[in-house]
Design brief:
mainly alpha; 9 helices
């Protein structure tokens, strides 16, 4: 008989994860709102998580688990090294590779990863120019670097001042999909000024999760 039998404590479905979280919350005498406040997520997220919704965001789920004194365990050893540690990742090399392979969807996710990792590290992680050949992505990284520096109350790295604003407005999401006009307007309205100054438009909520 193929496959492996699940351990009694294995969590292999969203429903099982929700059941564990709900049980631990009640054991600790917490309301859903109190747990949401402790994990810095919305009450709706906790409600959906406990209900076993399968699209729950992993980072927020881990925050809820931490608030309850729980953690995830891997059956195999966790990889280590700069590729797996956002604070040590070579973002210049990462974006060079993603742009060369035209993996724009993942590149956009890495923009958010760079912003979040910089905020958590307490400094912009790109202190030197990434030297990208593509001006659009250079402008995006310069804008995000300035944004994180300002949020942290630090001087903006000098290399960002050498990057020129784009001649026309650019939404990175348009690199791989069509963005409708209402979403364009919303994105432009909610873009941090540091990115808007580079003529790059990304909603702030898509960047800063730290």
């Amino acid at each position: 008989m193929g496959g492996h039998l699940a351990d009694a404590n294995s969590i292999d479905t969203a429903g099982a994860a929700g059941a564990v979280i709900r049980s631990r919350r009640k054991e600790q005498g917490l309301s859903q709102q109190a747990l949401a406040d402790a994990a810095k997520v919305s009450r709706k997220f906790v409600v959906d998580l406990e209900a076993g919704h399968e699209r729950a965001e992993l980072g927020k789920t881990i925050a809820v688990l931490h608030a309850l004194g729980l953690s995830l365990a891997a059956a195999e050893s966790i990889p280590c090294g700069t590729d797996y540690d956002p604070a040590r990742r070579d973002y210049g090399a990462t974006f060079t590779q993603l742009i060369e392979t035209r993996d724009f969807e993942f590149a956009i996710k890495m923009l958010a990863d760079y912003a979040t990792a910089s905020l958590k590290a307490g400094r912009p992680l790109l202190q030197r120019s990434p030297r990208l050949k593509e001006p659009h992505w250079s402008a995006a990284l310069a804008g995000i670097t300035a944004y994180t520096a300002h949020r942290l109350g630090q001087p903006t790295p000098l290399w960002t001042r050498r990057i020129k604003p784009l001649p026309q407005a650019w939404l990175p999401a348009e690199s791989y999909r069509t963005v409708r006009e209402p979403m364009k307007k919303l994105t432009m309205n909610e873009t941090p000024p540091e990115l808007a100054a580079m003529n790059v438009f990304i909603r702030e909520r898509s960047l800063a999760t730290a």
